[in-house]
Design brief:
With 151 residues, this protein is of the alpha+beta class. Helix content is 21%, strand content 38%. Helix 1 crosses helix 2.
């Protein structure tokens, strides 16, 4: 159930960004979750890169990985991001769900163009394990998890 709510939150964030309207259940979940904006790849000096986000589960850090992609760690432990979701994070949101963390972001993967990044959603456990993930290519329309969750 938590996973459905989490993906609902992520999809609602991405839907808001794309000017689509999420279901009422998703809107309620967003209002209740503590969230923080994250920015990694910014050309603007007025919008500095996020170095970390403090959550109930611990400190989520963003850094440059060995391959040039954005690397995540939770409490100093590297997060093993699925290869399908690996890339350079542009911007997004971190949702603090207590014992879990949801990262919903636009990520430029090798197969994307800079103008059309992919939508990536990662649900992390309190120990930094990836519990679930979803990747929507920048060239494909998103699946609407909210409508499935709202029934």
């Amino acid at each position: 159930m938590r996973t459905v709510i989490s993906f609902c939150i992520a999809t609602a964030f991405l839907s808001f960004t794309a000017h689509a309207k999420p279901g009422l259940g998703c809107q309620d979940a967003i209002k209740q979750a503590k969230h923080s904006q994250i920015v990694w790849n910014s050309a603007s000096p007025d919008l500095p890169a996020t170095k970390h986000v403090d959550t109930t589960a611990g400190r989520l850090m963003l850094a440059a990985g060995e391959d040039g992609f954005t690397a995540l760690s939770l409490n100093g432990k590297p997060v093993q991001v699925p290869s399908s979701a690996a890339g350079t994070l542009a911007y997004g949101q971190v949702y603090d769900l207590g014992k879990q963390i949801l990262v919903a972001a636009f990520v430029e993967r090798p197969e994307d163009s800079g103008a059309v990044p992919s939508e990536v959603q990662l649900l992390l456990s309190g120990d930094g394990s990836v519990l679930d993930s979803a990747v929507h290519s920048g060239t494909a329309h998103s699946k609407d998890f909210c409508s499935r969750a709202d029934g």
